[in-house]
Amino acid sequence: MTQRVALITGGIGGLGTEICRYLARSGNRVIAADLGTRKERVDAFLGEVDEFKASIFFEPLDVADYAGCAAALADITARHGPVSILVNAAGITRDTRLCKMSEQQWSEVITVNLDGVFNTCRALIDGMTERGFGRIVNISSVNGQTGQFGQTNYSAAKAGMHGFTMALAREVARKGVTVNSVSPGYCETALVMAVPEAVREQIIGNIPIGRLGKPFEIARVVDFLCADDSAFITGANIPVNGGYFMDF
Fold first, then answer.
1. Cα separation of 127 and 133, whole Å?
2. Of the residues 22, 66, 154, 186, which is catalytic?
3. How far apart are alpha carbons 93 and 91 in whole angstroms?
4. Do 87 and 20 meet the contact criterion of CB atoms below 8 Å apart?
5. b/e string for 45-69 if b means 16 or more Cβ within 10 A?
6. Residue 1 clears pLDDT 70, i.e. is over it
7. Under the phi-then-psi rule, with left for phi > 0, alpha for psi from -120 to 50, and beta for the rest, what region is 189?
8. What is the pTM of this model?
9. I need a labelling partner for 2 at 20 to 30 A (CA). Which of 132, 143, 151, 180 fits?
């Protein structure tokens, strides 16, 4: 089997790290791309994935910087090989009610969570279509489907991400490139575990399965969508939320 290069933005976050592990186990050369400004955070990540040190690598990348992103991805391609799998998992929150939201809180979330998807896809899509193979998975959110109090910025970005997914999927479907979204529900990540316990228990009470998701449960779905033989799935949004939101 050909070893493919997989790039995961937000690769040293809670979900990102687990996605890196899964894609490495599937035989890919994995690039965890994230901000490189905190060396201790990068070192901690490399320690967590030490068993995969021959197949998981860290590269600094700011998805919010269009020109910088293009340059960094060109450099990564030159050193690691062409990127065939792209997982857009980079994301931030700046939660507050709209009546108190600053323009900066709005623009920061839109820039990282939505513009970042454009920046990475724009830099890599031509290479994928020219080679006749590509897998793009955009990590959206259940809150992009349901909306969430205090998250007009985040919910808008995540809903926009899936609109982007469907449009791009149509553009490249005949070029061997699939584009899909995964919408996680509430999972055991640092972000969710930082929520006050009483609020967290209220959230869990609304999840039919009765617990938070595990990061590996998201990573498993991403890995499935990135497989060579998942070629007939494109433009889809896969919810992984324990039944918190159901639709068809």
1. 9
2. 154
3. 7
4. no
5. bbeebeebeebbbbbebbbbebeeb
6. no
7. beta
8. 0.96
9. 180
